[in-house]
Specification:
The chain is mostly helical and about 140 residues long. The chain has a domain at about 10-110. It contains six helices and no strands. The chain has helices spanning about 10-20, 25-40, 45, 50-65, 75-85, 90-140. α2 runs antiparallel to α4, α2 packs antiparallel against α6 (about 90-140) and α5 (about 75-85) packs antiparallel against α6.
């Protein structure tokens, strides 16, 4: 039996690198939503539910790798309900899909807006600090 000896730093770096490659991003999720929606538009859910189900399962896996907040938990529950239902009523399955899709897109948009807000806050904060340093170096604020 062979032994595997690894440098701790290298193992951590490899692990982090692998996680970055495996983690989905909002663009991946949006693309997967478009792909599944296309399947529904072509009525593939009526002729090959298994293929649609498989793609929804992959979407769920992608969402689990996304650094998501607790707001995604109800959406994952909705996906589970759709995946594990018998889907005798295909129109109902399509309606459930649209509800899931809308919820995911709303969550992704909210996530983008929060990131944009944080970015502008950080930029604004660093700009304010930079201006303060420039002005304070030329003005003795204690004398004012």
């Amino acid at each position: 039996m062979g032994r595997f000896i690894a440098d701790d730093d290298q193992s951590v770096a490899t692990s982090v690198h692998s996680d970055v490659e495996l983690a989905s991003n909002p663009e991946d999720i949006a693309q997967k939503l478009d792909d599944i929606e296309s399947m529904f538009q072509r009525d593939l859910h009526k002729t090959n539910w298994r293929a649609v189900n498989d793609q929804i399962q992959l979407l769920k896996g992608d969402m689990l790798t996304l650094n998501a907040s607790a707001s995604m938990m109800p959406i994952l529950g909705m996906i589970n309900l759709l995946l594990h239902s018998k889907n005798d009523d295909l129109e109902q399955a399509q309606g459930q899909w649209h509800e899931i899709q809308n919820s995911i897109r709303e969550s992704l948009n909210t996530r983008k807006e929060r990131k944009r807000g944080r970015r502008s806050t950080i930029d604004h904060g660093s700009l304010t600090r930079g201006i303060s340093r420039r002005f304070s170096s030329g003005i003795n604020l204690n004398r004012l």
